[in-house]
Design a protein that fits this description.
The protein has 2 helices and 7 strands; from the N terminus they run E-H-E-E-H-E-E-E-E. By secondary structure, the chain is an alpha+beta fold. It has a 7-stranded antiparallel beta sheet with strand order 1-2-3-5-6-7-4.
């Protein structure tokens, strides 16, 4: 593995993740260091559907979507790190632990999701990650989460 950090734009993200609007919650992933760490970026906009009801007079990004954005960042990191683009990779949540919300995420924010692999082997099925979502350097949310990776869906 080279020491060069990689990145994924929205086109590459869509070739790795099965998610689509309105549930694709990461715009790009940068600083991808193999399958050990990455930083996702989400430009939060008012036209996202969850803001219609959460809450109309004071739009706040739901905490579960913040955690999902961290998980999607981890999925892109695995896709790039293991070079499994265009393979219909599927990743399923198994657990979410130590989840804390520290600050609101609102339209106009640029949220960064810093994800680190805590456990997992190349081509293994089980991975554990730590994620921290920040806005302007302030921690918005943090969590540890586990996932099951289906490297060969449909086989």
């Amino acid at each position: 593995m080279s020491n060069e950090l990689k990145s994924a734009d929205i086109e590459l993200i869509q070739r790795i993740l099965p998610h689509r609007y309105p549930f694709l919650l990461v715009d790009k992933v940068v600083d991808i260091d193999g399958y050990s760490a990455a930083r996702g970026i989400k430009n939060v906009t008012f036209n996202e559907p969850h803001f219609q009801g959460h809450f109309p007079s004071a739009p706040i990004m739901p905490g579960v979507t913040i955690v999902e954005a961290m998980a999607q960042t981890a999925g892109v990191m695995l896709g790039v790190g293991f070079d499994v683009v265009d393979t219909n990779l599927l990743i399923y949540f198994m657990s979410i632990d130590k989840c804390k919300f520290r600050r609101k995420v609102v339209p106009g924010d640029v949220m960064e999701m810093h994800v680190t692999t805590l456990r997992g082997k190349p081509r293994g099925k089980l991975f554990k990650f730590q994620g921290v979502a920040t806005v302007e350097g302030d921690v918005a949310a943090e969590a540890e989460f586990s996932a099951y990776v289906d490297w060969t869906p449909g086989e």
